[in-house]
Amino acid sequence: MKIAISGTYSSGKTFTAMVLAYYTGVPRLLSKAIREIMPGLMPGKRLSEVTPEEFLHLMIARHIGRLKSEIKMGNNYVSDGSSLQELLYGEARLVYGINPSVGSLDNAKYENDTSFFARMLKEFSRSIKLHVANTFDVFFHLTHELPITEDGHRPMNTDFRDVVDKRLIEVLNEIGTPYYIVSGSVEKRVKDISDHLNLHPVMSMEEAVKRASLDYKAQDLRLEEERSRSKKQ
Q1: 211: closest CA among 186, 174, 183?
Q2: Which of 182, 153, 172 is CA-nearest to residue 17?
Q3: What domain range includes position 100?
Q4: 145 within 8 A of 181, measured Cβ to Cβ
Q5: CATH of the domain at 59
Q6: Which tens digit of pLDDT belongs to each residue from 129-179?
Q7: Count of the separate structural domains present in the chain
Q8: Residue % of the chain over a pLDDT of 70
Q9: What angle do CA 126, 159, 164 make, to 5 degrees?
Q10: In the chain, helix, strand, coil percent, each to 5?
């Protein structure tokens, strides 16, 4: 079964997917995040500095990375999000600007690009939605009940995050893939998901959380420009 953990950024997708994988034994799909992709494509740039066309480039690169991992994993895995994430982060930028963390004045320089950006997102959305609908068996959407993690990478804009969260549900309804909303502690989320799918635990919840916590702490969370500098050294 191909399971996707859905939700906007700072909703706990990554940790939930990690714990679920350990608890049930379902393999976790691994693919490079935007902060890992950027140094190779746009050395020295931060996500907050990209232009509309560069965001489209990153969106497609991220989609290709996800696609390769999905093919490699076969028919049984749990995925931290899906390609809908980047598509809808793009859509929400039509409302809040290419850099949602700053005001409209700072985004005004891209005003002439908005129409092109919107048309391209609409076209790309056709293939991305079709791919997601044909790939995943079920989505579990996490309520965004956690505060935004201020890590210098994610947009510090709650309205932006609210729009993305709303659109994720709308698109899941549109493409017809079954989805269920889960909330609460990571233990409750994982128990609810595994019970719904009738997945039997292969270890205790306590052990699953412990192992996932070690994996989470071991992640390389350096920002894009830090990675670029490391490559040059």
Answers
A1: 186
A2: 182
A3: 2-232
A4: no
A5: 3.40.50.300
A6: 999 999 999 999 999 886 666 655 456 678 888 999 999 999 999 999 999
A7: 1
A8: 87
A9: 20
A10: 60, 10, 30
Q: What is the pTM of this model?
A: 0.88
147: how many CB neighbours lie within 10 A of its CB? 8
**Phi, psi angles (nearest 5°) of residue 182:** -125, 155
Measured at the CA of 231, the angle between CA 225 and CA 233, to 5 degrees, comes to 110
Strands (E), 81-213: 138-142, 179-182
Tokens of 99: 């850099």
Lowest mean pLDDT among 24-38, 45-59, 155-169, 194-208: 155-169
Q: Six-digit token pair at 41? A: 């494509």
8 A C-beta contact, residue 87 and residue 132: no
Alpha helices in 74-113 (DSSP H): 84-96, 104-107
pLDDT score at 22:
98
At 26, list the tokens: 């379902």
Residue carrying structure tokens 């706990």: 12
What digits encode the pLDDT tens for the residues 63-86? Answer: 999 999 999 999 999 999 999 999
